[in-house]
Amino acid sequence: MSDFSVNQFLEMAGTPPLDIEICDVTLRDGEQMPGVVFKPEEKLEIARRLDEIGVEIIEAGFPVVSKSEKNAVRDICNLGLNAKISALSRSRQSDVDVAIDCGVDMVSVFIATSDLHLKYKLHMTCAEAIRCALETVEYAKEHGLIVRFSAEDATRTDFNTLKKLYKKAEEYHADYVSVADTVGIMNPRTMYYMISEIKKIVNIPICVHCHDDLGLALANTLAGAEAGAKQLHTTVNGIGERSGNTPLEELLVNLRLHYGIDRYDLSKLKSISSLVERYSGVPVAKNKAVVGDNAFAHESGIHVAAVLEEPRTYELYSPEMVGAERRIIIGKHTGAKALKYITKKMGYDLEKKDLCLLAEKVKTASEFKRPITCDELRRLILDLKIEFVYNGP
Ligand SMILES: CC(=O)SCCNC(=O)CCNC(=O)[C@H](O)C(C)(C)COP(=O)(O)OP(=O)(O)OC[C@H]1O[C@@H](n2cnc3c(N)ncnc32)[C@H](O)[C@@H]1OP(=O)(O)O
Ligand SMILES: O=C(O)CCC(=O)C(=O)O
Which residue intervals define the domain Pyruvate carboxyltransferase in the entry (predicted)? Predict the structure, then answer.
């Protein structure tokens, strides 16, 4: 039996096959989340885990940020991972030099191209910014690097200017052009349109780097991929600037369920999520898709009764698929069937009428707005003052 239920509308709606790769930027954009600092050894461990999952590219950092950042990027390059290692670089030869020093395979040369950024941040004309970027792309290529050219704030940039710039970057032998939706302004329809149009202009692969300011980063990334974008950017748990980036775990599960891409090891998603949660100090919301504590937790009596017979009734995909576990919670919404299951596991054999009485007690006891622990449940069973068979420890 499959690990997940199939969406019958995929075939009806027509779903294109995707030709994609993942570039995970947890160690760079993820770390730009205010307050997040990964220790060098933590960066290495995250890189190893990303490699085990099978992401094709790891953006290991932005080496000019600090000495320890540079060392960490270098150490990651020396790990001998399967993934290609990339570093971020401003459109400056000196930034590329530091990346080369680290031994990276790839460099992401970026320049902001929107009027807002040119005027208020770079204090450059568009022509000056383009010159800087192209010279840097050329320099990085001359030094044997794979080069991604990224237009920062691409989605708020005059589209004709942007298309010309991407074409130029291709002429300067960039290996990829990147659409950075830096402030998350896009929606799936506009992203699909934008990527489709860029695809008509350039023959090199396109990257999409989406931010979640409107909660659409994942949807926009998928829309970009459907339009033909090759390289999809992610961060573990979606950490990153402001509202964060496209979450790796959500994207990979979508790629599996909706597009049949099964080369990534999804069973490591829960553990990398917990690791990054711990290292970053950014708690994962309980109700977060795929890796939240409640992703496979059930309290409602009707749900639990069904899940105990067949988990797929209320689980789209199995917890095992992503390395998580199913949990049955006891609380206000618990019914007799759930209690039968839980009490049996605790060693009790209670009659139906006693389970109903126990359910009432559980509902009263859980008015303090929290789940009931097994110890509390045991006390409630004793409170019933009934006869029962106990086979527990
Ligand atoms: C969309 C993104 O995520 S972009 C990446 C953002 N990440 C970071 O900023 C990482 C953390 N940053 C840092 O540690 C520091 O800002 C550093 C080391 C990068 C630079 O530090 P400083 O030299 O002190 O510069 P400062 O931060 O004050 O200003 C940024 C400088 O970069 C320049 N700059 C910004 N983007 C680019 C670019 N793509 N290409 C060239 N120059 C750029 C700015 O014009 C400014 O230049 P100036 O100092 O000559 O005025
Ligand atoms: O496109 C990229 O590779 C990075 C740009 C970026 O981090 C952003 O604009 O948010």
Answer: 20-270
User: Which ligand 2 atom minimizes the distance to the CA of 148?
Assistant: 3
Q: Is 325's pLDDT higher than 70?
A: yes
CA 99 – CA 140 distance, rounded (Å) = 10
238: nearest Cα among 313, 196, 160, 184:
184
Per-residue pLDDT for 393 more than 70? no
CATH 3.20.20.70 domain range(s) in the chain: 16-280
**What is the CATH architecture of 16-280?**
Alpha-Beta Barrel (3.20)
Sign for the CA dihedral angle at 311, 314, 320, 325 comes to negative
Closest ligand to residue 179's CA:
2
Closest-lying ligand 1 atom to the alpha carbon of residue 110: 39
Burial group, residue 352, by CB count within 10 angstroms (0-12, 13-18, 19+): exposed
Q: In testing the pocket of ligand 2, which one of 24, 90, 104, 110 has its CB within 8 Å of the most ligand atoms?
A: 110
Residue 49 in tokens: 């885990």
The number of the ligand 1 atom at minimal distance from the alpha carbon of 112 is 39
Pocket lining for ligand 2, CB < 6 angstroms: 29, 108, 110, 150, 152, 178, 180, 182, 209, 211
Structure tokens at 284: 């994962």
Q: One-letter amino acid identity for 30?
A: G
Question: Nearest ligand, CA of residue 135?
Answer: 1
In angstroms, rounded to a whole number, what is the distance separating the alpha carbons of residues 317 and 257? 9
Task: Kindly report the pTM of this predicted structure.
Answer: 0.96
Q: How far apart are CA 107 and CA 133, in angstroms?
A: 13
Look at residue 392 in the predicted model and tell me its pLDDT.
65
CA 109 – CA 96 distance, rounded (Å): 8
The ipTM estimated for the assembled molecules is 0.98
pLDDT at 387 over 90: no
- What's residue 384's pLDDT? 87
- Using DSSP's 3-state secondary structure scheme, residue 380 falls into helix
Among protein residues, the one with the nearest Cα to ligand 1's atom 36 is: 90
Q: Tell me which H or E stretch contains 218.
A: helix 217-226
Report which ligand 2 atom has the smallest distance to the Cα of 179. Answer: 1
Q: Are strands 231-234 and 21-24 parallel, antiparallel or unpaired?
A: parallel
Q: Measured between alpha carbons, how far is 282 from 287 in angstroms, rounded to an integer? A: 15
Tell me the CA–centroid distance for residue 125 and ligand 1, in Å. Answer: 17
